[in-house]
């Protein structure tokens, strides 16, 4: 269970990222966080593994304070939190296998890590995880030879081998085309339903949030302005909260971002072919 108690975040330049957030997320929930650009979605998500430090309040995970954890405790807690980013965060020149097995690093000490001494079990875990995301045949491929969607699925495989109970994903489908986005969202769904992982995803697409999440949290200007089951996040309700015109502009901006993502992928493919 994740608990946020009176959580605020003010950045060094005075910008308020989060305003007095009180929130409880139970284990096994599938939550999508929606909201316009600058609403505070990334700030909230990054606070949940302390990539952002909050300036007021406290965050507890399974009863343990993330806010007050010392370095050793934080490392232990982070072992149980997988993080997925919009731009995949893979070591591009490394093989798929090496990127996925790096999800086990939290289980090894520094010298084992330096020597790359992974166990047989971890190599087996890596193969299993890649099978689960349909990429078993890519084990030995260089990560940057894969499409954007495949790279995102490699980063999901990395959280599978990490065996993290909580998976945080910051705009994981923003750079992907609509069909690939559904494939990636289905990976999250399987992890949630079959492995009982808690999933929290920042997402711009309201239709995807409605389709996959069991709970939707809407943010605006650092505050939670909607929190309820996906079925209650109707167009009428969201129009009332955000204003229709603003919301439509946001969807257009999102379409532009998707197009830009596809163009980047095409350029990457051309680049790979040339090489
Ligand atoms: N490192 C930072 N320093 C100062 N201000 C920041 C920083 N990061 C975010 N902000 C500001 O905090 C507010 C919330 O930003 P955040 O990135 O959390 O929004 P978001 O909802 O994730 O937006 P987007 O959908 O565009 O990613 C914005 O006003 C943003 O400009």
TrEMBL record:
Superkingdom assignment: Bacteria
Alphabetized UniProt keyword annotations: ATP-binding, Cell membrane, Membrane, Nucleotide-binding, Phosphonate transport, Translocase, Transport
Keyword Coiled coil found: no
Record keyword ATP-binding present: yes
GO molecular function, one term: ATP binding
PANTHER family noted in UniProt: AMINO ACID IMPORT ATP-BINDING PROTEIN (PTHR43166), PHOSPHONATES IMPORT ATP-BINDING PROTEIN PHNC (PTHR43166:SF6)
Protein name: Phosphonate ABC transporter ATP-binding protein
Organism: Ruoffia halotolerans
